[in-house]
Amino acid sequence: NLFPPQHLDDDTVSGSNWITENNVQHSLSQTTKTTRKPYCGYKQQILSKREQEEQESLLAAIQWPKPSDGKIAFVQSTDPARSDFVIVKPSGFFKVGDQLEVLVHMKDFQGKPKQYGGDYLQARIHSPLLKAGATGRIVDCHNGLYKVFFTLLWPGEVKVSVSLVHPSEAIQVLLRLREERPDRVYFKSSFKSGRYSETTECNVCLPGDLPVCNFTDLYTGEPWFCYKPRKLSCASRISHAKGGYQKGLLTQEESLFFQSDVNIKRPILSSGPDSVIVKPKAFT
């Protein structure tokens, strides 16, 4: 999953903290020496041929376009303020049920046209007075151009809005974090016996080589692990909750791709008309 970037650097408890015993935190360095390489239970699973085919199909379905070059400088990344869209045949005759086509042209912070795709766009048509709206189908042409198709569902003036949610360069950072830091969102479970309690970190992947409790679902096979409490058994778990987010995962250069007032959820303006008039569908 692509995790919202605004949480990547939250000032929360680090995932390198292992066990809290009666609300007293113990860092990994104070307990057992561990490695950064996480233990991922799902990687130990043996898939059947059908499961392997399903996995490959799902991975292919979520495959995201990548730039041809490796590292992209910020000034070469997508700038929504310099990008624009145009309505194809804005003065054409439209009626309810017709398709409206929009072309989006992406440019970088130098004003140069982008040569690759992968931007995360959202597009919609809406009529504020009618409180009506609908989303569009976006086609990435992989050359900095995007085609958006809308089905016109109601009569009257219909406005088009396009916004950049994440530039393609930010998507690549999120994909890297997904692969390299599967523990970036961490969870915790409480274990209790009598008046004594401990809390440990839980996840699909756990950093280090400390002993773990295996809570993998026996029916679905969905893997889940918690660090084993130092004095309690795995069977003494009584609750489960989200622990927090790892912080400091972005480099200084990567953080430039996640600026809320610059390139996250920013509107892309039209270089021409941004609305069309739709006539009611004729009945015969």
UniProtKB/TrEMBL annotation:
Pfam families: Neurexophilin. It comes from the Eukaryota. This is NXPE3 protein.
